[in-house]
Specification:
8 helices; mainly alpha
Length: 175
């Protein structure tokens, strides 16, 4: 930065800070960030004094514009967060949480009774949100092979679940 420019900025620092606080609605920490950013703009040449006004007027304009840019970015960020914020998971009662954990454990136990490839493809598709094509690439098998194991695994799981629901236990049958 030009030494003359640096000395002018330094001479107006207190006034510029008070102005930055006013531009930031009294938020001192935000004003510090705004002033720092304004100084960086001046130092790296993004803001250049053209001499069309007093130096103080120009400096205050840089601070004001920097505060306005910061507010605009914060507003856009808030709007995007609201727009893309995921829905919170529903709160479960302890009984619901237990039942859900019990179902998950039962499904995991049923998966263990399948062949390795059937278990792998179902695990990748259902627990890791992959397509069958992606699962086939992970497993190093052809798409047709992955589809066959996926279909057989689903049928075996359905039969085991049906046997459990009908009270037959059925962990080993239908496999």
């Amino acid at each position: 930065m030009d030494p003359d420019l640096a000395s002018q900025v330094e001479a107006l620092h207190t006034d510029a800070f008070v102005w930055a606080v006013a531009c930031c609605n009294g938020a001192r920490a935000e004003a510090e960030d705004v002033l720092q950013t304004a100084y960086l703009k001046i130092a790296d040449g993004r803001a250049q004094f053209g001499g069309r006004s007093s130096f103080k007027t120009w400096l205050f304009g840089v601070v004001r514009n920097t505060a306005r840019e910061r507010r605009r970015r914060a507003t856009v960020r808030r709007l995007l967060l609201v727009q893309w914020k995921p829905e919170p998971a529903p709160v479960q009662t302890p009984g619901e949480a237990f039942a859900s954990a019990e179902r998950a454990a039962t499904l995991r136990q049923l998966l263990e009774g399948l062949s390795d490839r059937q278990r792998e493809v179902l695990d990748l598709v259902f627990y890791h949100d992959m397509t069958i094509e992606e699962a086939s690439a992970v497993m190093g098998v052809s798409l047709g092979t992955a589809r066959t194991h996926y279909d057989r695994g689903k049928k075996a799981m359905a039969a085991k679940l049906l046997a459990l629901q009908s009270g037959g236990g059925g962990y080993e049958d239908a496999g």
